[in-house]
Automatic annotation (TrEMBL):
This is Peptidoglycan DD-metalloendopeptidase family protein. The keyword Zinc applies. Its main location: other. Pfam families: Csd3_N2 (PF19425), Peptidase_M23 (PF01551). GO terms for molecular function: metal ion binding; metalloendopeptidase activity. GO terms for cellular component: cell envelope. Residues 157-275 form the Csd3-like second N-terminal domain. InterPro entries: Cell_wall_metabolism_enzyme, Csd3_N2, Dup_hybrid_motif, M23ase_b-sheet_dom. It comes from the Bacteria. Keywords: Hydrolase, Metal-binding, Metalloprotease, Protease, Zinc. It is found in: Cell envelope. GO terms for biological process: proteolysis.
Length: 433
C-alpha cells in the first residue's frame, strides 16, 4: 500500500514538473517568437544609408580632392593630372563653348575633382569649377559628357550695421563688419545729398539691409531696406520703396534721394582735373579749355551711365580715345572719354539705364594716365557737371503715399532699435553740438 502511495506521489511530482517546464518553455518560446518576429520585421529589410551628395552628384563610390587654380594653370593641366586624354579634354572644351569659356579659368579660384582609382591611377569622373561664390560649372565625364552651370542654394538674412565716423565712411563700415559693396551702395544712395569728400568726424550712420548667404558665408548685398545718416548733426533718412518701377530711395517726405543723374559715374580715387576755361594740358603742353571733369582711377575700373538715355556715339577717336556719348532727353547729354574698353552691347542707337555698365577706365586717345574725362551738356552747351543744378527723380506718387508712410514707419522703428557702438566718438559728437 505504501509502495502504491509512494508511486502515486512520484508520478504526480513528475507530472507537476513536466507541466511547470512545459509552461516555462512555452512562455519563453512565445517570448522568443515575439522577439524573433519583431527582430525579423526590422532586420529583413537592409539598412538604407543616405547617399553623400556633392554638387548634385552621388559620390559614395568616388574620391574627392579640392584645390585652387594655380597661376597659368589651364583645364588641360588639371585634367591631364587625372589621366583624362587630350582628345577628351578637346571634346569637353568644345562642348562647353556655349556654357562656359574654359579660357576664363582664373588663378586662386576653387576647383574640385571627383575621381576613381583605376589600376592605382586616379581617373577623373567630374571637374567642378567655381568662378564666383554663387555658382559652379560642372564638367561631367562619368557617363555621357556634359557641361552645365548650377547655382548654389542662397538664403537671405536681415542685417544691420551702425557706426560713428572717425575718418571716412568706408573705413567705419569695414571696421564694423560691412563690405566695400555696402559702402558703394550707401554712397550711391546718398550721393546727391551728401558730399562724401567732406564727411565730418562724428557723423553717424545706421543701415538696415538684406544679405545673400551661401554655406554660412556672406556673398553679397541683396538690398538696402533703409538707412539713417547724421551729417553735421542733420539726420538724413532713406527708405527703399517700390512704387511700380523698381526700388528707389526716398527721404522722410517721400522725395527721391536720386537726381536724374548719378553724381559720379565711376568709383574714382581723386578728381585730377576740374572743368575750367583755361588749363595747362599735360600732353599738348599748352593752355586750353578743359570742358570736363577728370576722375583718376585704375585701368579697368567700371564706368556707369549717369542716367537713362540713348547712345549717340560709341567708338574710338584720335583725341577722345574710346568714348561713349548718351542723349538723356532734349536737355541733357553726357560723354565718357579715354576708355580702355567699351562694354559689350553698348552701340549707337541702343538704350541704357542709369547705373548700367558702359565701359572701363583707360588712357586711350590724348591722355597722360588712366582716368575718365566726364563731359556734360545742357541745352547744347558744355557745362560743369559738378555745378549744374539737376532736377530730382520722381517722388512718391499720391496712389502709393499711404503705403509708403506705413512702410516708412515700420522701417524707421527698426532703425531706431539699432544702437550706435559705444566709443569715444560720442564725446566728439557732443562737442560739435
Amino acid at each position: 500500500m505504501m509502495r502504491k502511495i509512494l508511486s502515486a506521489v512520484v508520478v504526480l511530482a513528475v507530472m507537476s514538473l513536466a507541466y511547470f517546464y512545459t509552461f516555462e518553455y512555452n512562455s519563453i518560446g512565445e517570448i522568443h517568437k515575439k522577439i524573433e518576429v519583431k527582430s525579423d520585421s526590422v532586420s529583413t529589410e537592409p539598412l538604407q544609408l543616405a547617399p553623400t551628395i556633392l554638387y548634385g552628384m552621388v559620390i559614395d563610390s568616388f574620391q574627392v580632392e579640392e584645390h585652387a587654380v594655380k597661376r597659368n594653370q589651364s583645364i588641360s593641366d588639371i585634367l591631364l593630372a587625372y589621366n583624362v586624354s587630350h582628345q577628351t579634354i578637346f571634346q569637353l572644351a568644345n562642348l562647353s563653348k556655349n556654357v562656359f569659356d574654359v579660357r576664363k579659368i582664373a588663378p586662386n579660384k576653387k576647383y574640385t575633382v571627383i575621381y576613381q582609382e583605376e589600376d592605382s591611377f586616379p581617373s577623373a569622373r567630374a571637374l567642378v569649377y567655381e568662378p564666383n561664390p554663387e555658382e559652379y560649372v560642372v564638367f561631367n565625364l562619368k557617363d555621357s559628357m556634359k557641361v552645365y552651370v548650377e547655382k548654389k542654394p542662397v538664403t537671405i538674412q536681415e542685417k544691420s550695421i551702425s557706426g560713428t565716423i572717425q575718418s571716412s565712411l568706408y573705413e567705419e563700415i569695414l571696421k564694423n563688419g560691412g563690405t566695400p559693396e555696402l559702402v558703394d551702395l550707401v554712397a550711391d544712395m546718398y550721393g546727391w545729398q551728401i558730399d562724401f569728400t567732406k564727411i565730418y568726424p562724428g557723423d553717424q550712420f545706421k543701415v538696415l539691409y538684406r544679405e545673400r548667404v551661401i554655406e554660412g558665408k556672406a556673398v553679397g548685398i541683396e538690398e538696402i531696406i533703409g538707412a539713417e545718416l547724421v551729417h553735421y548733426n542733420n539726420p538724413f533718412l532713406s527708405i527703399a520703396f517700390d512704387q511700380g518701377d523698381g526700388v528707389d530711395y526716398f527721404d522722410e517726405e517721400g522725395k527721391s534721394l536720386r537726381k536724374a543723374f548719378l553724381r559720379y559715374p565711376v568709383k574714382f580715387t581723386r578728381i585730377s582735373s576740374r572743368y575750367t576755361a583755361k588749363r595747362f594740358h599735360p600732353v599738348q603742353k599748352r593752355y586750353k579749355a578743359h570742358l570736363g571733369t577728370d576722375y583718376a582711377a585704375p585701368t579697368g575700373t567700371p564706368i556707369y551711365a549717369a542716367g537713362d538715355g540713348v547712345i549717340t556715339k560709341a567708338r574710338y577717336e584720335k583725341y577722345n580715345g574710346r568714348n561713349v556719348k548718351i542723349r538723356h532727353n532734349g536737355t541733357y547729354s553726357t560723354q565718357y572719354l579715354h576708355m580702355s574698353r567699351i562694354a559689350s552691347g553698348i552701340n549707337p542707337g541702343g538704350k541704357v539705364k542709369q547705373g548700367q555698365l558702359i565701359g572701363y577706365v583707360g588712357a586711350t586717345g590724348l591722355a597722360s594716365g588712366p582716368h575718365l574725362c566726364y563731359r556734360f551738356w545742357k541745352n547744347g552747351r558744355q557745362v560743369d557737371a559738378m555745378k549744374v543744378d539737376l532736377p530730382p527723380s520722381e517722388p512718391i506718387v499720391e496712389d502709393y503715399l499711404t503705403n509708403f508712410n506705413r512702410y516708412k514707419g515700420f522701417v524707421k522703428a527698426k532703425l531706431d532699435k539699432i544702437p550706435y557702438p559705444d566709443s569715444d566718438d560720442e564725446v566728439l559728437m557732443a562737442g560739435m553740438q
